[in-house]
Amino acid sequence: MHELALPLLIGLILVALAFDFLNGLHDAANSIATVVATRLLRPVHAVAFAAVFNFAAYFLTIAFPALHKVADTIGQGLIDKDLITPAVVFGALVGAMFWNVVTWLKGLPSSSSHALVGGMIGSGVAHAGMTGIQWTGLNKTLIAIVLSPTIGMILAMLVMLITSWLFARATSRNAERSFRVLHLLSSGAYSLSHGLNDAQKTMGIITVLLYSTGYLHGAFEVPHWVAISCYIAIALGTLTGGWKIIETMGSRITKLSQHQGFSASLAGSIVLFCASLLGIPVSTTHTITGAVIGAGTARRASAVRWGVASSVVVAWVITIPASAAVGALFYLLTRLF
């Protein structure tokens, strides 16, 4: 157990909640890009819609506690929880927040999840070396980097194919009306799954901080007040919106119809709900980007702006090493004090 004065503990928890807020702001594009791009909802209405469903994920976990496994992976599945110190948590959070701000300013939809994973790994290795890494949790997170956008893309193409067949005899007007309703529903489901998976990452960080400082006794479980605080923080961040990234996700990668927006949102929500059930801190950004590309490709490959898509992929590749380096640096800086 590592002693930490209560004011410092509160300050570090507030830093974690600030990351959660920034996560919501940065990843607002994931939840609302398709409804904004297709003009299904106005931007202001879209962020409010997404924020409500982000917070509604809290009630979903009350009904289905098994969906709260991601917090365990972040809290004790990446670095041995008995080796984590407040300085490690601080380094991880600053590393993740630094990368989020950089990519937000550049308008690149990088992954807040993998920025946090990178910050945690970099800070943890700087503290305890490679022996502290929990390879099972890290490996499934790294595998998800490849699988989540790939599965999202394939599912979006399948949804496009199946629904095109189902609506083959419908008039264009009736089909458009139906897909507008379906798109709104699928967007709500995606915002729900986004809040569910992403808010848990901060829950895991705060829980392991409480555990390492002796404020959490018994089983490694997320306290009720931590869960509701994280859902509120990410919902408020989403409400603020990340407009530069929304532009990239919603219109620069490919132009979307209501049919494509529905397919992308539905595919993304399926991937995220399954990931939460399996306890995998999957990237919501990677998932929806793959789904958007899949929905665009289902019509024709030339509809996707592959140059923009490739720049997004580059941001993905360097997210974990960049945030790990910054996380390690800020951990080492804390050693000076």
Task: Spell out the key features of this protein.
elongated; single chain; 337 residues; mainly alpha
* Largest sheet: number of strands, sense, barrel closure: none
The coarse overall form would be elongated
Please tally the β strands and state the result.
Answer: 0
Instruction: Name the poorly predicted regions.
Output: none
Tell me what the structure shows:
The chain is mostly helical and 337 residues long. Helix content is 79%, strand content 0%.
Care to give the gist of this entry?
The protein has 337 residues and is an all-alpha fold. It contains 13 helices and no strands.
SSE map:
Elements: H1 6-26, H2 28-37, H3 43-63, H4 69-76, H5 86-106, H6 112-128, H7 135-166, H8 172-212, H9 224-240, H10 243-252, H11 258-278, H12 284-299, H13 306-335
Helix pairs in contact: 1-5, 1-8, 1-9, 2-3, 2-8, 2-10, 2-11, 2-12, 3-8, 3-9, 4-8, 5-6, 5-13, 6-13, 7-11, 7-12, 8-9, 8-11, 11-12
